[in-house]
Predict the 3D structure of the following.
Amino acid sequence: MNFEFGEEQNLLRDQARGFLADHCSPALVRRVLDGDELYAEDLWHKVAQMGWTATAIPEEYGGLGLSYLELVVIAEELGRACAPIPFSSSVYLATEALLLAGNAAQKEHWLPQLAAGEAIGTFAYSEGSGQPSAERLITQVSSGKMTGSKAVVADAEVSQLMIVVAKSEVGDGASLYLVPTDQSAVHLETVKTVDPTRNHANVRFDEADAQLLGQEGQGWTLLTQLLNRAAVLLAWEQLGAADTCLEMAKNYAMGRYAFGRPIASYQAIKHKLADMYVKNTLARSNAYYGAWALNTNAVELPLAAATARVGSSQALYFAAKENIQTHGGMGYTWEFDCQFYYRRAKILALVIGSEGVWQEKLIQASDELDVA
Amino acid sequence: MDFEDTKEESAFREQARTWLQANAPTEAEMSGMDTMARAKFWQKRKAEGGWACIRWPKAFGGRDASAIEQVILSQEEAKVAVPETGVFSIGQGMAAPTLMTWADAEAQANFIPRLASGEDIWCQLFSEPAGGSDLAALRTKAEKDGDDWIINGQKIWTSGAHYSDFGILVVRTDPTVPKHKGLSYFYLDMKSPGVEIKPIRQISGESNFNEVYFTDVRIPDSQRLGDVGQGWQVSLTTLMNERASIGAGGGGTKFSSVKALAKTVMIDGKPAIEDSHVRAKLASWYVQEAGLKYTSYRTLSALSRGAVPGPENSIGKLVGAVKSQDMASFAMDLLEQEGVVRDREKDAAFAALFQDTYMAIPGLRIAGGTDEIMANIIAERVLGLPQEPRMDKGIPFTEVPTGS
């Protein structure tokens, strides 16, 4: 049994953690939260220089050609630091969509730019409140021109490329498209969210140039595969964030005294922190399995991805809210950093479908694998 | 990252499998034997073949095997039809390591081989009505009388006392000093005059534990392990091995059984499995179940590397027990009025699985450390949080406040 990371991945983790401690301090997260920046552009360029955006892209397209085991390690550390950059949109979604469905020309055009961090990509999926489905799609493409709109697209305002799901009259009812954003037919409207450290916008396509990605009428199938990959990667980012919440709560409880002793010595607090630890540990184990399934493209990936996703979403929500609770009144102040993770928890939990959506996918996947 | 054996592990697995296949007892060999006789028959054969207690040092008849080799042997043993040998686990898993550390060479030579071969069964006489989670609050007293000690008091929750040959026992030899300092540790013959064993009937209807009463029971001083007053340290040797002996548990109700039930019962005229509330609950339980499974894979990987399992393993029982309880309760709710029926013969589909789990799990959440103690262990030993202040620290045991 060797259900562990290897020496190279452990070294990468140490390196990434050290790098982010230096270059993604809470002060930097706060700078984006308080200021007008759409993202921490300085950090983005440093991360790209480290090669992280190129991790799982093959060398022939300007990538490092590493495995997903390296990418999940980086995802975890970015989550731990609450990095205010469009990494998940560009790497887990746009890059993966191209790797999954792009033709040679599309890959040759976009992947080197994405690998270098010169281009940022994102994924446009939802068209309004409630769960998206192929039947509900209105956005459509005719003669290479896209018309319609997408709601609350993460990192849209800083992206050069959008992967857009649109209606199709054939196949599974949807197709994926590449839409460059440097055209006047793509209109953005800033959306205020619970987490100002990650920009979001509503997007309108007014006969925008759009290029088919993958086959016509296979969009929903491709989207499902793409989201399974992204679910594992996001689960690791969520896990890193959940670990920080536990660490913050623990440190505060050790140093805060009430009634003559550290609040960490009260069972009400100890059991709360033990509960966080248990949830994080189980989520981590499921994320390991997700990483294995993603890395080997196993037939179990749909189930493993849903399991990792639900576990990490639940763990981060619990850790983020109970971290504030452990800090008491100070945890609710703008001055304290607990808010970073409480905000980010919801952004990460909803970006590719809520906990409920993934619970449903989990049960469907368990039927398909006939898990007894 | 994979789930494969290393080369050495694979070779060991092959060796174990070959021996097990050649030596697993046949039904003919065991005809007419009851469960206990079968357990002893198989244990003896394992000992003779050098496959009993393989973790033990070679000097005590083991093979100095690693933790992962023990896991591999257990996995392979589970694949062949051999008698269940759980009756030996307290003796081999808890009494034997204590004897190896604290007994003299003569006692070791007398008892350890018989523990390995299953000739003797041992029980653990620690818990008392006055001391469960607070074990050191025990009150059973021992008074010196010449070369003997006279024991009076009561133990409780003693698994297998009624079929045990020997027991390990912690008693209070000095109530005038702080509680941890006044304890001493003995072993005794369970047939000693004055030992009375009464089974405890559990809410499940079964009797897995006993009360053991001591009335003027005489134990020779030569059966003391450690110095007088050193009983707590000796107990720690035993307790360090307890977690390895008590399984992670989780009862019989699992994701698969509740999902199977949900396909057969109806909600609003449709199978319950189509109800989104049911699906969401099932999914969350699956996440916990898978989380425990892959946590155990990570533990195995650590063992495979040669690491020692730590207190983080408290998670299995802490999560698994209450999960099964909640799932069983939910399954009974799905059955509506039928859910209250507990009749194994008449329940063709599930043989009262959910009702049995419902009645069994309250015990599992307490045995071997309550959920609350497990959470304390994680908080203190994994996260490093401070202990609660104690009212009994540094004062004589006789002055410690009690409820009765």
